[in-house]
Each structure stands twice: as C-alpha cells, then as structure tokens.
C-alpha cells in the first residue's frame, strides 16, 4: 500500500510539475509574443509600408521630372531656339544683329549701304503711350522704370536691292524668333533698285542680376 501511494504521489507530482511547466511556458511564450515579437512585426510592417510609400513618392517625382524635361525639350524644339536667340541678343546685341539681321537674314543680292547698332536705348514717346496701359501687368508702377525691366537695342539700316530681294529680306526679319518694333520704314526707287531704310528696336527682358 505504501509503495502504491508513493507511486501515486510521484506521478501526481510529475503530472502537476508538467502542467505547471506547460503553463509557465505558455505564459512566457505569450509575454515574449506580446513584448518582443509583436512590436518587431509591427515595426517591420510599418517599415515595409514606409518603404512602399517612399518608392511610390520616388516614382512620382521621377515621372514629374521626366514630364518637365519633355516639356523643356518640346519648347526648345518648337520655339526654334528662341531661348538661345534671346540670350545672345541680350548678352551681346551687336554680335546678334550682325550675325542674324545683317548677315543670315539678308539675301545675297542685297547690299547694306549703312548700319548702326545702339544698345541700351529708351522707348520713344509713342511706344511708351502704347505700352502704358499694360505696365502694371509687368509689375511696373511708373513708366520711367520700364528700362529697368527691358533692354532695348536700336538698329538703323539702309540697304539696296531688287523688289524681290527686299521682300525676302523683310520676310526673313519677320521670321526671326525675337520681338522688335518698327520705328521707321521707308522704301524708295533709285536707279532701278529699291533703297530700304529701316529703324528697328529689339526688346528683351533684362536678366535678374542686371534688372
């Protein structure tokens, strides 16, 4: 009887110890899951979402940059190098007019009798009156400040040639990708040739550092 009771008590203790061990292991596992594994899994999920958002933002920025670059390329192409023309005209008006107005635009059978280039001139009184209603659109309060925003170069030109060549020359000038004002235009017949007198004012925005 005593042996049976001992055996029974030992098994009872073993069973109790096993049950207690299982309970302790379950509690320990739950605590590890709650305090260690769950936060790590949460951080990983947040990190993955953050990386995904970062990648999406990068893709969006890359698309925007590509679109802007495409627009710049398209504008540069469709404007026939207008930006380069204006920059050259602003930085060196004498060279620009000599190269594009007096040489490239001029047909071969036209003779330039005289020419004069005057950078940094002012608007005429007529031009100021015509521009006056629009100066506020450019952020100008007074008409006297107009030359702070625009750089004006005047060209006085006298040329001789046939009717066809004079017409072609005027067409070529009008096709230049820059803006100019015709201040004076005169055409005379002389010795079976036409004599063209022109006074043009080329206008460009001043650069920010020079405004």
General description of the model:
By secondary structure, the protein is of the alpha+beta class. It is 58% helix and 21% strand. It has six helices and four strands. It has a four-stranded antiparallel sheet. A hairpin with a 2-residue loop joins strand 3 and strand 4. The radius of gyration is 42 Å and the shape is rod-shaped. The model has no long low-confidence stretch (mean pLDDT 76).
Q: What descriptive keywords fit this protein?
A:
211 residues; alpha+beta; 4 strands
Shape, principal axes of CA atoms? rod-shaped
Helix/strand/pairing category: alpha+beta
What is the helix content?
55-70%
Biggest sheet character: 4 strands, antiparallel
Widest sheet: strand ordering: 1-2-4-3
Q: Secondary-structure element sequence?
A: HHHEHHEHEE
Which regions have little confidence, pLDDT < 50, spanning 5+ residues?
Answer: none
Strand content: 15-25%
Q: State the distance separating the first and last CA atoms.
A: 115 Å
Number of helices: 6
Give a count of the beta strands, DSSP E runs of length 2 or more: 4
Our Rg estimate from Cα atoms comes to 42 Å
Average pLDDT over all residues: 76
């Amino acid at each position: 009887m005593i042996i049976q009771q001992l055996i029974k008590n030992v098994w009872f203790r073993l069973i109790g110890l096993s049950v207690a061990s299982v309970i302790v292991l379950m509690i320990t596992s739950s605590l590890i899951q709650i305090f260690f594994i769950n936060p790590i899994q949460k951080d990983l999920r947040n990190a993955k979402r953050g990386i995904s958002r970062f990648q999406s933002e990068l893709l969006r920025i890359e698309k925007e940059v590509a679109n802007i670059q495409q627009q710049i390329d398209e504008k540069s192409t469709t404007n026939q190098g207008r930006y380069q023309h204006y920059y050259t005209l602003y930085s060196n008006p004498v060279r620009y007019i000599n190269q594009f107005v007096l040489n490239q635009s001029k047909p071969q059978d036209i003779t330039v009798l005289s020419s004069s280039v005057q950078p940094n001139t002012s608007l005429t009184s007529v031009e100021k009156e015509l521009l006056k209603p629009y100066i506020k659109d450019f952020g100008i309060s007074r008409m006297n400040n107009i030359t702070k925003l625009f750089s004006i170069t005047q060209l006085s030109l006298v040329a001789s040639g046939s009717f066809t060549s004079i017409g072609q020359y005027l067409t070529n000038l009008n096709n230049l990708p820059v803006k100019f004002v015709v201040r004076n235009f005169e055409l005379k017949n002389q010795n079976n040739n036409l004599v063209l007198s022109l006074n043009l004012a080329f206008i460009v925005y001043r650069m920010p550092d020079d405004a």
